[in-house]
Write a structure and sequence with these properties.
The chain is mainly alpha-helical and 157 residues long. The strands form 2 sheets. A two-stranded antiparallel ribbon has the order 1-3. Strands 2-4 form a two-stranded antiparallel ribbon. The chain starts with a strand and ends in a 14-residue tail after the last helix.
């Protein structure tokens, strides 16, 4: 008996290609502009009042919240899909559309795929939170104006 194959969905393939192209273009522009932005931001904060620095901190926290939100949504989707695979013992799950022709797995092989997906979803969520926490510390350091060190008197008692 030959294995069952689930055929690819052409419309889904085109949507993915367009979406990934847009994400890559936006990411490339972001990476190219990040260094300039950070140096300008540090200079701006060092030269202005604390109120401006606080507004910059709030803006950065909104960006970090968006990043964490996107990572959490991806993790939830991956976890939900993986749970459907694990509990339904079928990969890809019933009704799912696929990007390329995919061999249908049943039983133990499908449960193994589902379990791997659940582990990846958990890891993705944890890494998203860790990156956000680290980025928050880095941006707080960048947004804190550098203070001149206070001279210490030696021998004064």
């Amino acid at each position: 008996m030959s294995p069952q194959i689930q055929k690819a969905d052409e419309r889904l393939r085109i949507r993915w290609l367009v979406g990934l192209t847009l994400v890559a273009a936006i990411g490339a522009v972001g990476i190219l502009r990040l260094d300039d932005y950070l140096s300008e931001l540090h200079t701006l904060v060092a030269a202005t009042q604390p109120a401006t620095a606080e507004k910059a901190r709030i803006a950065v926290r909104w960006v970090l919240a968006a990043i964490v939100g996107a990572g959490a949504l991806f993790s939830l989707y991956l976890g939900w899909t993986s749970w459907r695979i694990y509990s339904g013992e079928r990969y890809p799950p019933p009704g799912a559309r696929v990007l390329s022709d995919t061999k249908i797995l049943l039983g133990k092989a499908a449960r193994r795929r589902g379990l791997i997906g659940l582990l990846l979803a958990t890891l993705t969520l944890l890494l998203t939170l860790a990156v956000a926490a680290r980025a928050d510390r880095v941006f707080n350091r960048l947004l804190t104006p550098t203070l001149e060190p206070t001279p210490v008197e030696v021998g004064a008692s």
